[in-house]
Amino acid sequence: MTKEKLRREVLRLTRCDSINDSKELIKIYCEFLFTATKNHAKDDAKSPAQRDGKLIIQMMLTKLLHLQNATNGIEYVSQDGSRLNRIIDPTIIASMVRNVFETVGMFNLIYRNTKSEDEKTIIYILWVHAGLKYRHRFESVITKEENREKLEDEKSQMVQMIADIEATALYQQLSPENQEKIKTKLKEKDYKIKFENNNVVFLAWQDLAKVMDLKPGFFDNVYTYFSLYAHPSNVAVFQFRELFQNPDDFLRTTNFNLMKLFIFTSIFIADYIKVFPNVLKTFEKLDTRDQIVIDFHNFAFRDESYCINGARKAVE
Fold it and tell me: What is the rounded distance in angstroms from the CA atom of residue 251 to the CA atom of residue 255?
């Protein structure tokens, strides 16, 4: 492929002006995620945290495959022959992209953003503890003895998790006020914190855009935007009504939502390779075009220091 043709292809697949271009880019992401999963399934995980972190690539693959199916649209013919013409529902796309944002943000917060093993240990344990504590809401409806035994075992594990947090040197260096903040998160079934100069800073989902070091201004309200569609807000209802007044409107909105998907997926892949460097071998076996388009939104919406490799130089 000539340099000029490569430039045109990269431009087409990074701009994604049409649904077909967007679907092609999703396919490129899925092919890489699948191949990386297959090639590195047997790579050693040195800890439970690494074992769980490795699995996130498989979760991202299934999310993108579902989104790929969603971009095929839906149609319906009733028994009396009435027809719903093929449409794509951008509100469904938005809800699914919000889930991708949360997954990418979680991975970055625990595995990429942490500056020490103690930081990673504390936030990882908070994450695990939060999930188990949420599940224990079903305690009152447990009927099988084996599930009751599992619950009691998990309760013992959760006690040990708290002890493991308190045993870290970082926790012991914190002021009583900051130690109490961690205890608060344990009670709240939450893990979204970061450490700044031995201070515990509480985070909301929206804050994870800053944690991922996304350029300011582009993503200040991204989580709020997607949350409008994840819940049946009145805004979601009246915007849904307007989406199908013009056939181009739902396609345009779908592509707008997919562009956010591409940014988050690009960031995830860059972060995943940083955390699991062996995966770079699989990445660099891709066509140069695919390397560039996968990495493009990662460095374009962060900065050059986050680049996966130097593939983009092929079009400079």
Answer: 6
